[in-house]
Amino acid sequence: MQETKFITYLSWIATVMAVLMYVSYIPQIADNLAGSKANPLQPLVAAINCTLWVVYALKKKHRDIPVALANFPGIIFGLIAFITAL
């Protein structure tokens, strides 16, 4: 029982950290919009990777909601960072 509780807490902490990682694209997006463009490749690859993880998490027999929630913001912010970097 103790290990299950630990894994549950760990998964939600990892989910929050992943969301924060993708929200950290906001300064890059702001810089892109201000004319200081960053390389668009990394956020595009992040968005594709996050899309694959979300599909995986939701399509498997026992859905993995923390994985889907952790990666969904990466799709949104990755695409916005990519588009604004062009």
TrEMBL record:
Transmembrane listed as a keyword: yes
Alphabetical UniProt keywords: Membrane, Transmembrane, Transmembrane helix
Name of this protein: Integral membrane protein
TM segment ranges: 7-29, 41-58, 65-85
Coiled-coil residue windows: none
Gene3D superfamilies linked: 1.20.1280.290
Organism: Leuconostoc litchii
One term under GO cellular component: membrane
